[in-house]
Write a structure and sequence with these properties.
about 30% strand, alpha+beta, about 30% helix
Length: about 190
Amino acid sequence: MDLSGCANEFSTIFLTNPVLGKLAFIRYTQRLSHECRSQLSRGLRGETQMIPVIQKIHQAQLRKDLPNFRAGDTVKVHVRLKEAEGEKEKERVQTFEGVVISKRGSMASASFTVRRVSFGIGIERIFPLHSPSISSIEVVNQGRVRRARLYYLRGLKGKAARIKQGDRGQRESEMAVTAAAGEAKS
């Protein structure tokens, strides 16, 4: 995507507004000339890369200590809560264990939804992935599912809502061993 003629217009928008959300970004494109706006809209369909200044800001906010997990995995999320009693502020950690039904977003704006059933009532909670309020995330079990979003679990009850246990880590290590053996033969 060639935006060389629009570089000055883009830089003024991003210099005046260093932290823009997607909606704000679309609103600010109205200031651009027609040619630059059409080039930008082509880029918003997937042909664009993040502007380096914003990319550096996002990289600084990312956490490095998070495990790899995906939809179908059972996770235990440890959340920091602040309790205010008068002048004293106490901080405690509360765990929320459930099945990850979706992951969305990228970089610093990524979030995931965890669902659990408590006393017959389904409870879903959305957590920002790189939030400082999350103390840690533990992967309890890896589920074997063939979808990225498990919203169908909302309509299921009891044993029908169970997810098969997977062994992704074991399969990946076996594939790596067979690939290494194949390379050794040749």
